[in-house]
Structures are given as structure tokens and as C-alpha cells.
Design a protein that fits this description.
Blueprint: H1 4-11, E1 17-18, E2 21-22, E3 29-30, H2 36-43, E4 49-52, E5 64-67, H3 76-95, H4 100-107, E6 109-110, E7 115-116, H5 120-123, H6 126-139, H7 144-154, H8 170-179, E8 183-187, H9 192-201, E9 210-212, H10 226-234, E10 242-246, H11 249-257, E11 262-266, E12 281-283, H12 286-294, E13 305-307, H13 308-318, E14 326-327
Parallel strand pairs: 5-8, 5-10, 8-9, 10-11, 11-12
Antiparallel strand pairs: 1-2, 3-14, 4-13, 6-7, 12-13
Helix pairs in contact: 2-13, 3-4, 3-7, 4-6, 6-7, 8-12
Length: about 325
Amino acid sequence: MSVRRGTRALISGSSWLFGGQSFPRSHMMLQKVQPVCVVKRNMAEFSPSISESNLTSAIFQPAVVIFDKDGTLVCFHTMWNSWCEELAGRMTAETSKDLSNDVYELMGYDYETKKIGMGMLAEKTHPYIKEKVVEMLVKQGFHEWEAKQVLDKTWKDTPENMQIKMTGNLRNLFSRLREKNIKIAICTSDSREGTLEFLERLHLEEFVDIVVCGDDKISKSKPDPHNAIYICNELNVDLSDAIMVGDTPADTIMGQAANLGLTIGVLTGVGTHQDLTHADLIVNSVSEVVDLVTNEDTEDFHAVTVTARGLCKIAARSSLQPLRTTEVKI
């Protein structure tokens, strides 16, 4: 595996922006790649959000891409807004007490905007959320046994009428990865029931090599690196040959903690650029991730934010065999 070609594409991309200011081509010519420590010192002088670049070559040739599900492969809000409202409705009916606001606050759901923010529902597993629901009911005056009974009667792992809005043409994207002999894994905080229903309804089972869900016995809640390491071990893939793709800090921190080859944040979920600072790269969607790693010709322009962490990681890889002459736009 080599990332030298991708590093050249990254460094010599068609436009570099620092602090919103563009610099002309003539400003810098490097005769050789500087040591990583020098790169780190120089990059520290600029904004942590390093680059917006049109990348024409694969940045990294992975053996496996590990995808988060909700917010990454499917629209988080379409999937879980109705679930929040349904749960609140069932709990209110069961207890004869309006618990809507309490449920929404616990889940991070804004009823007015119909949006779910960063928080428990976006980042935690169902077993963890259920424990917090019981705690919320106890605070509302229910005995613990009553709270557990209410939960048992009202909880459902998936929305009653699951609405799935894909963030890209997943069947096409997964096909392209498999054509390059790149394995596909899904690591989600969602339940196995909901994850398998998602795969079956979109006819994606044939493409996915392994699935780890939040309620699996072997699973540990993100951002613990366990699940990513487990996936790589099961697929006989080196950690350095894996990419993690997700929309929350739980995903990106997990990827870094597991020492994966690259961690990519996507903006299709609840996370913003500010939330995804632990990523090496930040892109708009999984479609751009696949374009970047498959090295296929595309006329699409991709705006890619390369964090200081990501630039230093790629520079460290390429420095194993230094490039003779690299033109840098800054």
C-alpha cells in the first residue's frame, strides 16, 4: 500500500485556502519534502482547517472502509425524528403524564426544527439510552421498578414506519468499492434489528463483509476503539489499512484511538466542521469518500477540509520515500 501518489495530489491540489485567503502558485516551491516535525511547526502557524482542494488521485488505498450508519449512510433526521415523537407519545399514554419535553431533551431532539442535535441519540447505543430513560422516569417520581416497566412497554428499537433517505447511491458506491477489492464494514450504535432491516430494504447485504451494532454482546460504545479493532481483526486487515467514516465525534475519535490509517468526517449528519476536528479529512458525503479512495475519474469538484492532524499524518506516510519536487499552493 502506498499513499505517496495521494499525498502529491493532496499537496498540489488546485486551490489552497488558509483563513479564507487564497495564495498564488508562485508563493512556495519545495525541492524536497521537509521532515514531519518541520511540517508540524509550519502548519501550526495557520488555521487548523487547512485545505479546500480538488483531489484528482486516490488519497489512500484501504483494505476496508468502516462506515457509521445513521447520519453517514442514511439521513439521521428522517430516520429518528418520528421515533422520538412516537416514543414520547407511547410513554405519555402509558403513564398518563406528558413526558414529551423530557424525552425530547434527553434525546437531543428539537421538536420545533425537527432536528436532532449532537448528543445521546446521535452517539450512544440503545442499551445505554434505555438506562438513561429509566433514570429520567425515576427523577419524574416513578419507582425504579415502575420506570423499567414503562420502558419495557413503550420502547421500540426502530421507528414504527421506518423512513430511509440515503445520503448517496449506496448500491453504486458499495459496488465501486468491491470492484477495487475494498472490504466494507458497518459500525453503528443502532440495534442489530434496525441495521439488518436497513440493509435488507436497500438490498445491500451482499456488499457488506461485517456489521457491528450497539446491542451486540461483543460491542463497546463509541468512541472506545474496540469495535474498529475487532472489525479489522475479523477481516484480517491491518489497522493502518483501514478507513473510518462517520458524522460524529464518537466516530472520528474512535478511528483515531484505534490508530486507523485514515479517519474521515462527513457533513450529512449531526456533526459540523467544529464537531469533527478529530478527523483527518472532512468531506460533504460518502459519495466523495468513495471518489477519493477508488481513484476513479470524475468531473465533480470536491471541497475537502484537511485538518492539521490529517496533513501531518499523510506527510508522515509520504516521508518514508520522499518526493523529489512537490509544488505546494498555500
